[in-house]
Design brief:
97 residues; mainly alpha; two-stranded antiparallel sheet; 3 helices; 4% strand
Length: 97
């Protein structure tokens, strides 16, 4: 892989809507090139026969608390101070035409 140049960094910054100083471009080019080289190395690893995981703790059981109601339903109380409500819903002004 060829390292990124400052022109490519400027293009990437423009596409990402990032403002970078011209004097910082060489450092960004080095850092981004190093990241891309690492990704290239990881892509080269043979992963045939390796099962994909949702997360690193895929095989571990997680201790979860019981799903119990801990607060009273106070919707009517809270809606008494709302400017507009209807059928238990808050009414808000239309913001998109």
């Amino acid at each position: 892989m060829t390292p990124l140049g400052t022109a490519e960094v400027a293009k990437i910054a423009h596409l990402a809507r990032l403002a970078i100083r011209e004097e910082d471009a060489p450092a960004y080019a080095r850092n981004l090139s190093a990241i891309l080289e690492l990704v290239e190395q990881m892509n080269a690893v043979d992963t045939t026969g390796v099962m994909p995981m949702a997360h690193p703790l895929d095989e571990m059981a997680q201790r979860l608390r019981a799903d119990e109601v801990s607060e009273m339903n106070q919707r009517e109380h809270f809606q008494t101070i709302a400017p507009l409500t209807e059928a238990g819903l808050y009414l808000v002004p239309k913001v998109i035409e």
